Amino acid sequence: MLQILHNPRCGKSRNCLAFLENNKATFEIRNYIQNPLSEEELKTVIQKLAIKPIALVRQKEAIWIDQFKDKTMSDNEVIRALTLHPILMERPIVIKDNKAIIGRDLEKLEKFL
C-alpha cells in the first residue's frame, strides 16, 4: 500500500492527494505536521528517497532562515531540525515499498506509481 506524507495546508500536497484519489490508488495518509516523524522514521524515508537529508529541507521557510541557514550541519543535525520543525520538510512524499518520491511533479509521480 502507498503512504502519503501530507500537509493539508500545502497546495502541492493537496494536488498529489487528489491525483492519487482520481487514479483510484489505495493509500494511507499521514499528516506529518500533526503526527511528526521520529528521527528513525525520517532516516528511513530519506533512505527510500535516496537523497541527503539537506535535500529534504525547504530552505526558504522562515524557521530555516532564522535558525539554521548559515550553520554547518551534519546529516543527523539536519534530521533533528526536521523532526523538531516538520514544516521544514519538502512535501508531499509518497512511499511505495522500499522507494519514495517527493510528489510535487505529477508526471514523475505517475511514472513512480
Automatic annotation (TrEMBL):
Pfam families: ArsC. InterPro entries: Arsenate_reductase-like, Thioredoxin-like_sf. It comes from the Bacteria. SUPFAM superfamilies: Thioredoxin-like. Belongs to the ArsC family. This is ArsC/Spx/MgsR family protein.
